[in-house]
Structures are given as C-alpha cells and as structure tokens.
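User: Sequence in, structure out. Go.
Assistant: Echoing your sequence, followed by the structure tokens.
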Amino acid sequence: MLHSTMTPGQDAPGIRWLTAAAGSALTPLLRGPRRNGEVVARTTDMVAVHVTGAEPALVCVTNTRAARLPCAMIVDTPLPAATVGTPAAIGNGRLRLPTAVVSVARWWPARAPHVFDAALCVRRAARCPRPDLDELVRQAAALLTDGLSTDRHRLGDAVDALLGLGPGLTPAGDDVLAGALTTLRAVHSRRADELTAAIEAAAPLSRTTTVSAGLLAYAAQGRCVPELAALLAALESPGGDVQSAHRDLLTVGHTSGSALYAGVLCALLRADHPMSDRRPAL
C-alpha cells in the first residue's frame, strides 16, 4: 500500500512525505542527478512538473482516478499542495516540492507497444466506428493521413494544422499526433522519425500547453496510456476484443481517447501500407 507520512529532519516542518508507483519511463529522471523544474499545471487529479534541460521533460504526480500517463507517479493520498510556477526538483529517487517529497515505492512498466502484423491491424480497425471528432480536428487529421502518405513538406503542414488545435490541457489535435506517433513506433515505421522531426520543428512548447508538449515527447518514444497499448494489441490479435478495447480507449479524458484513436487510424492508413486499399474512413 502506498502511503503518506510526516517526517521531520532535514526538511522544513509540515513537509509531506509521499510514496508513489512510478512509470518506468521516468527512470532516467528519477535515478539521475538532481534537476530543477517547476509546476506547470494543477488539476484535481494531477500535479504536472516540467524539468529543465530534460527530454522528455514532463513528470506528473497523479491520483488513482487519473489516466495512467507514462510519466505518472501515482499516489493513493491527496495530491501535494502546489500552484503553477511552484519550484520543483527531481533526482536521486525523489520529486521534491516545497510542501512535499514524493519518493518511489515501486515501479510499473510504461513500455512502448510493438505490432508485427500491421496489415491485420488495418483490417480489424475497419470494423471500429469512425472517431467522434470536431470537424476542424477531423479535417486536420485527414491532412495527417495524407502527409504520412506523401512527403515531408505535407507532413509539416499537417503538424502545423494539428498542433495546439482544440481546448484543454491536451488539445485534441495534439492527441491525434500522439496516437499517430505511438502507432508508427509500434509498427516500426520510418515515418515515426519523420513525424517526430516535424513536430520538433514546429516548436510545440510555443504552440501548445507544456503538459501536451511533454506527452508528445513520450509518444515520440512510443509510450502511451495502457488503453491505447491494449487497442493496438487487440487489433493485431485475431482473437482480440477490438470493440471492447476501443470502448475503453474512449473513456480516456474528455476527447483524448477519440483523438488518440483517430491518430491510430492516421498511422495505419498511410498509402505505403500494403493494405491501404482497405482503409477505414476517418
């Protein structure tokens, strides 16, 4: 059981000591030397920290209700008190905030999914319903499918159309990009590097929220929420329950699940795919 205690000593009185289950994607940051950062977002279920000079740079302290982000440190107690701009530091196994120290009690695997039969994924994705997207997001997602099918110039245009598109902490356009990145990594496509480069060239920190930019950096490594990994696994398995996995993915966030799913389709439907003549519609 993860827990919270009060420990006097080197830290100021009133510091909360929390233990967390940390995603393995955070291993370099948590086991590395101390790095400074600051709180960039605070919700009822998450405290997000951007780490200076790191890539990926996002660390999120979350409760058990939140989506299991690959960069999550999950606690089963109330989240630390923190406001945007609060200084933070990470390293040597801990995340430090002025009001709390969060240390790792155990690790959970935040592995990138891998797919070896992309053609089967395309056939099975055709049985899923179209993603429910805002019309502007749908049009921009169609540009991404086209960009992945043609050249890098058009891919850059698609990234420009999607990056930061939509409201919220993770705009739907960013989620489309994250779903596509994760899928391209999963199917071992050379387009993953091209899409990553196009996103980096668009300077995401200046175009979208710091949280969303941070999650795109993890998606560039192929890391994602478990619901997306489960959908990719179901699509590749002849006996996989695609409909159930699809429904589970749609429960992620307000619009994130549907937008991530749209990104999966964008990646699977690129024209150089051997099954591109059997495309599900966006």
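User: And one key feature?
Assistant: Residues 135-149 form the longest helix (15 residues).
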